Amino acid sequence: MSYVMDLHTHTIASGHAYSTLQENIAAAKERGLKFLGLSEHGPAMMGGPCPMYFQNYKIIPREYGDLRLFCGIEANITDYEGHLDLDDRTLSRLDYCIASMHTLIVPPGSARENTRAAILAMENPLVKILGHPDDSRYPMDYEELVRAAARLRVALEVNNSSLHPLSSRQGTRENIRTLLEACLRHGASVILGTDSHICSSVGDFTQAEQLLREMDFPEELIINTDPARVGEVVN
Question: Is-contact 30 22, C-beta < 8 A?
């Protein structure tokens, strides 16, 4: 399969990534991507940028030859009520929002608590993507989660970084497989994200693609393969 977008990438502004925006742009162009997303961690993440960083996105050019840049955020889900670490007024000015759970922000709860937090976050109309719902440290009811995502038209992320052998997330391969099986039952769309923290991994979906091929997952449920579908996840 051919992928035209990577909307989950980080730069040195996130505090624990190692490439600049220009380096990521160059890598995306080399990969032949049509769309690149800048999704720095929200301000609750240690070392993450302050709210003003996101409010100043207006100064960043969006066109780089054949590449279109979207400026978004990987917002942190901060509690079991699905609250995010950036206010809606600021979020509404961004191109898109990924919402994710991180152990540095919210302690893992029960499957019921984690699922509730994710669904309540997805109910925010500014949230377009649920980031890496694949970590066994955050057990979830995938059937309930996928039903909600299909209803709310939120894309569920298949995170390539989660499948890396050195990933700190646990049980990801089995969890993603369970998630994808539920997506097949409910017709929910997924989006591949590299979660790149260095430019060499921008647009590299090798691990995720291998799993999708093993499952014979249908291309029509993968947003990244169709440039016309970018409007489903950006404003």
Answer: no
Tokens at 22, concatenated: 């220009």
Sign of CA dihedral 148, 151, 152, 155: positive
Q: What would the pLDDT profile of 39-85 be if each residue is shown by its tens digit?
A: 999 999 999 999 999 999 999 999 999 999 999 999 999 999 999 99
- For 69, list phi and psi in degrees, rounded to 5: -100, 130
DSSP string, the chain: ----EE--B--GGGSS----HHHHHHHHHHHT-SEEEEEEEPTTSTTPPPHHHHHTGGGS--EETTEEEEEEEEEEB-STT--BSS-HHHHTTSS-EEEE--TTTS----HHHHHHHHHHHHTSTT--EE-----TTS---HHHHHHHHHHHT-EEEEETGGGSTT-SS-SHHHHHHHHHHHHHHHT--EEEE--BSSGGGTT--HHHHHHHHHHT--GGGBGGG-GGGGGGT--
Is there a contact between 172 and 149 (Cβ–Cβ < 8 Å)?
A: no
Q: pLDDT of 125-158, one tens digit each?
A: 999 999 999 999 999 999 999 999 999 999 999 9
Give the residue-averaged pLDDT of 77-98.
98
Output the pLDDT for position 1.
80
Q: How many CB atoms lie within 10 A of CB 235?
A: 14
- Is residue 65 left, alpha or beta, with left meaning phi > 0 and alpha meaning psi from -120 to 50? left
Q: How far apart are the first and last CA of the chain?
A: 25
